[in-house]
Amino acid sequence: MTFRPLTSLAAAALLFSGGCGSTMTQDQIDTLLRETKSALVPDRRTRAFDVTGTVREGALVLTGHVHDAALKERLLAHLREKSALSVVDSIVALPHPDLGERRYGVVSVSVANMRRRPDHDEEMVTQAVLGTPVRILEKRGGWFLIQTPDEYLGWAVDNVGRTDSAGFDAWARRPKVIVTEPFGWVRTAKDQRSDPVGDVVAGGILALRGEEGAFYAVEFPDGRGGYLAKSEGEQYTAWLAKAKDTPQSIVATARRFFGVPYLWGGTSAKGMDCSGFTKTVYFLNGVLLPRDAGQQWLVGEAVDTTERLEDVQPGDLLFFGSRPSGTRPARVTHVAIYLGEGKYIHTPGDAGTTGICVNSLFPEAPEYARGRAEGFLGVRRMIGAGPDTGVRRLRQLPWYASRED
Predict the structure, then answer these.
(1) Tens-of-pLDDT digits for all 405 residues of the chain?
(2) Which residues belong to the active site?
(3) Are 320 and 336 in contact (CB under 8 A)?
(4) Is 279 left (phi over 0), alpha (psi -120 to 50) or beta?
(5) DSSP string, 193-220
(6) pTM over 0.85
(7) What is the rounded distance in angstroms from the CA atom of residue 203 to the CA atom of residue 288?
(8) Domains defined along the chain, listed by start
(9) Concatenated DSSP letters for 220-265?
(10) Which of 47, 323, 325, 391 is 20 to 30 A away from residue 104, measured at CA?
């Protein structure tokens, strides 16, 4: 991980020395920790950092938690270097010791909503679909702080099957089925009219017990069993072997989600936001993209757009937002998939839109969206991009590569 330089912290360090002696106000402590967090954790969506400090009997007492032991050591080393106060360490390095060995999990429902804080009233930041492997970092009541393979953090209710590393490896080695239709049902019997066991969405992964005619006998991570029609899924190893991101496959997959409604934080066929849509489309072609539009903007290969999109190919990602102004950098707020001829498919979330749809960058086109065109920032190519660009393919990732016996 690359950390931003500690530019503003030099001034903050004076708070600990000659100018103010060995005392600090609470505002000064909060400012120092806020700036430290900004320097050590450039992306708060992927690294946990919740530390508070107080001065007690001439010492700086630190409480809270950080993502891991390495981050804790960096934090303590930095504060001890800058302060004239002694530092009392009461910080917990995650995963929290109270979890014991059960620090791994697999999502056991069709879609697990992940929230910014452990409360149903809090913002939904993303979703994890059935079968997603996760790291479990902390537990509060019926909520778990989990981290998905794209490194995103969020709090989910107790619908993640917890296990230790041995249990997780045992699950990983089992044959799997991946859901390939936008929606589906696992049934109690080999009959589409039988009662449902649970719903599934595209990209969901189940354990494979066997094949019986037109059905797969499957098992959820929590042990529930049933039958999935073969028309709604495919054996994972066969699917993964042929999964390939090409312009044709990306566009074809994107078009399968026409009409899916906009949902902030959504990454499934039940509802998607703009980057949840692009992430899901690429996942179904064997590619794991970062979660958010701003994160996706930082991976892949830049495409030259100075000559009216001649170098842009279908499947490329188009980014929108506010252009740089003065010292203010560009800010990415939206992403779409290019279709060709100036058209792109996306889920805009604008008033009056019903869901995933097509717009155009060209003023003469009936699908022209002026607001989007005026905020067009550039294009990144994920198709064919190597691992050095930040684009990762499932077959290269231990948590998603086939590990079946």
Answers:
(1) 343 443 443 333 333 433 334 577 888 889 889 989 999 999 999 999 999 999 988 889 999 999 999 999 999 988 887 777 788 999 999 999 999 999 999 999 999 999 999 999 999 999 999 999 999 999 999 999 999 999 999 999 988 989 999 999 999 999 999 999 999 999 999 999 999 999 999 999 999 999 999 999 999 999 999 999 999 999 999 999 999 999 999 999 999 999 999 999 999 999 999 999 999 999 999 999 999 999 999 999 999 988 778 899 999 999 999 988 888 888 999 999 999 999 999 999 886 677 999 999 999 999 999 999 999 999 999 999 998 999 999 999 988 887 664
(2) 274, 334, 346
(3) yes
(4) alpha
(5) TSPEEEEEETT-EEEEEEEETTEEEEE-
(6) yes
(7) 12
(8) 9-94 (3.30.300), 98-171 (2.30.30.40), 174-242 (2.30.30.40), 247-394 (3.90.1720.10)
(9) -TTS-EEEEEGGGEEEHHHHHHH----HHHHHHHHHTTTTPPB-TT
(10) 391
**Structure tokens given for 391:** 């684009």
Fill in the amino acid letter for 88. V
Q: Which two tokens stand for residue 64?
A: 């809270």
Q: What is the DSSP letter of 126?
A: E
In terms of DSSP bridges, do strands 86-93 and 233-235 run parallel, antiparallel, or are they unpaired?
Answer: unpaired
Starting at the earlier edge strand, list the strands of the sheet with 176-179: 196-201, 183-187, 225-229, 215-219, 205-212, 176-179, 233-235
Collapsing DSSP states into helix, strand and coil, what is residue 98?
A: helix
- Calculate the CA dihedral of residues 56, 60, 64, 69 and round it to 10 degrees: -140
Instruction: List Cβ neighbours of 215 (8 Å cut-off, separation of 6 or more).
Output: 187, 190, 227, 228, 229, 230
Residue length of the chain: 405
